[in-house]
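ok here's NAD(P)/FAD-dependent oxidoreductase, seq below lol
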Amino acid sequence: MACPRRRREREAEHHVSGEAAIEGNEKLGKGVLQLGLGVPEARVTIVGGGPAGLQAARFLGRRGISVVLLEEHSRVGLPQHCTSLVSLEGLRDIIKVSERRVVANRLRGAWIVAPDGTRLLVERSQPVAAVLKRPALEEVLLEEAASRAEILLGRRAELEKLGGQGLVVNATGVTSLLRESHGAGRYVLPALQYDLALPGDCGGEHVFIFLGERFSRGLFAWAVPLSEKVYRVGLASKGDVMSRLELLLKSFHRLTGCPEPVRRLAVYGGAVYTGGMLKHLLRGSTILIGDAAGQTKPTTGGGLVYLSLAAQKLTEAVRSGNLAIYERAVVRELGAEMKAQLLVRRLLNSLSDRELSTLVARLKREGAEELISREGSMDRQASVALKIAGLTAARAPTLALSLLAKLFLGLLEP
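and the structure came out like this:
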């Protein structure tokens, strides 16, 4: 799910190495670094204390690699700025944190709402996704990272001046991505979302995805249940996000069947990137990871699972002494998947509201709800997209040809 980011005021410097500047300077314990046999001592400098930097520090530290992390803000995880919707499978197997501490709600499925109001239901009998308490997640990551690494909060670092000081990991986010890739700006969308209190129960087990230009140009709008009576409602779009979000709120009851929101609890804003992974992830002795590397899903803008996978591949590369392994491993794991997602994103962006409504209605008639519910994956979307394409070609060849033409035009985009 999309991840809006908000700028924060620079705050005072804090040093965390066994102690962290979490609420009340909570003690975290202090571990002794032990390098494995045959592994040369390495000092890795990570710039950026968001999830990408913390995961890199966490996984490197687990393998006994000496790490220093620099983060310009004095706290991590605040203010909360992400929808933070992930697959339960990805949370357990790749992000690797305890569900007990970080999960706000578990979801069984999604309603995909076309511009004309047609709804496609995708669901399982048991929960498949989790809405995370983002500050809690980053506190958990910081606690473990600080037990094994030197963490400097409130310390601003200039990447250019760190060259020649060993391996540097750039985990500084979208700002760095815009510097590294001249065309990336076209895929960075302003985003805005509200946490809203509802006067009554709305189920709380399904996320709503709203398609169409009324609510978003370049992505979609969403309503994610934090509980049965609190929803996080937002969108990312080229153009006026405020007016689009206000329009969505006016249409909320009609589109969802939920009670009209009665109170706004919180506001988050920032940007979402949907342009795919950068071609080169290694720049001299600097490695790019997370948003800085474009490791977010082009279909949704979410990136927690992908950056966590990248952090594990980074650790393998550092331990091997061959940094090129990182780029090869990440491309092998995510390259084809992200390219397929980028094609899907370009196709969806090319469709008019009328075409989107026609597509959703046809997919509903041809049994796509059952197909996606049975075989869909939040983290590996390419295979089910291919099966949907096959279903469309077999049962609606005229529509398939029209979509193919749109897809061809998408391929012409740089």
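fwiw The longest strand covers residues 263-273. kinda neat tbh
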